[in-house]
Every structure is written in structure tokens, then in C-alpha cells.
Here is the input.
Amino acid sequence: RFLRGQREVCVERARYLTESYRQTEGQPAVLRQARALEHILAHISVRIEPDELLVGNVTGKPLGAGIYPEGIAGRILGELPNLARRDCNTFSIAPEDERELVESILPYWRGRTIEERARELWSPEVTASFERVAPFILTEIAGIGHMLINHQRVLERGLLAIIEEARKRRQNARDEAQRDFYEAVEIAGRAVISWANRYADEAQRLANTATDSGRDELLAIVEACRRVPAQPARTFQEALQ
Here is the structure.
């Protein structure tokens, strides 16, 4: 239903990421990343569309594209004037969001992006190839991905068990880098659990005023999000959620 709607740029993730990084200057990188995730998940819009059975969104728009300024921030500026008019992958952007990007968010990331760091390391030949084949596309996550995540561990144990394991390992860490890593695991795990509870709260709010069969579906979402990913999944719906 909503896939036929207006495709919009959402600056929420970029806003909250940048807010967090401004507050954590000088801290270890792994802790800055974890605290940024915590800040994003605590503030990003929580929305449940009609008829949704699985919830969770990375933008605040029904059909949105996020901005990842830490990846290739400089390329975004050149795209902004033509987003709604280019031949493919068109998106609208609200004037106030465009102003926030240009005046507040993107200036912070000058000299701090992954692309700029990579350019210091790769050869002129790689730079030339990159310029030819890597235009900025809003719906791609800055080109870093292809990660195999241990979903089975979370499904079988739940994040609370993983957080507790990280806490114990942090106490016995051999150096500061290890301690920082395990603290980051704890921060990120708690952040995701809190995010799931935000969705449970929203589903409960909607269920309180629902009068049709959709109420049972909303209550199932409440139960799932109160359980996972904090605890092991018991059902297929909980595993997917």
C-alpha cells in the first residue's frame, strides 16, 4: 500500500548520529559508534503502518531514504538540487531538512568521512575508478556492508545473555581496547532492547483504541517486542521480529 506513496529523504538518522558524535569527541571509536546507535534508536521515529505484522524502521518516513553522512557526505551536496528531477531513483526533500543537512549536519563531517580516510590510503588508479562508478545513491548505505551477522546466537540466547557475557569479559579484559569493545557491546545491546520496547509501547497505544481484528495483531506485536530481542525467540514471528 504505502510503497506507492511519495519517496522522501529522511534526515533523522543523520541528525541523531551527528548530535552524538559532537558529544563524544575524543572517546574511543568503538564507544562513539555504540553511543551513536544508542542515541539514534532512542530518538528515531517509531511508526507502525496499518496491517504490519513485523515492525521496525530505519527512517521516519513510510517510504524513505536515510542519509549516512559518515560514509560519503561530500557527494550528498551535489545531488540535493536534482533529487526530485533526476532520471531514476527520485526523492523529495523538505526545505527545512535540506537546510539542516547543508547548514548543520554535513559541515561537521568534512574531513571525517570514511571516503576521505580511504582516499588517503588507496592508489590514484583506484581513485580514478571510484570517480567513474560510484555516484551517490540515497538508498544505498555508503558502500560498506556484506556482513554475516550471527543471528542464530541472538535467536537462541537473546541480547540480555550476550550483554551479561560482555560484562563479564569486560571485567577480565587484558587491555583498554578489549574493555572498550565489550562496553560497546553492552551499550549497543541495551539500545536495541530499548528500541524494541518503544515499538511495544506504540503497538499498545494503537491497540488501546483499535476496535477490529487488528487489535489482536497489535497485541501480538506488543508481546513479541517485549520478548525479543532481549530474550530467546520462541515462535516464528518472534524470530523474524
About this structure: The CA atoms of residues 163 and 186 lie 5 Å apart. The mean pLDDT is 90. The first strand starts at residue 8 and ends at 10. The radius of gyration is 20 Å.
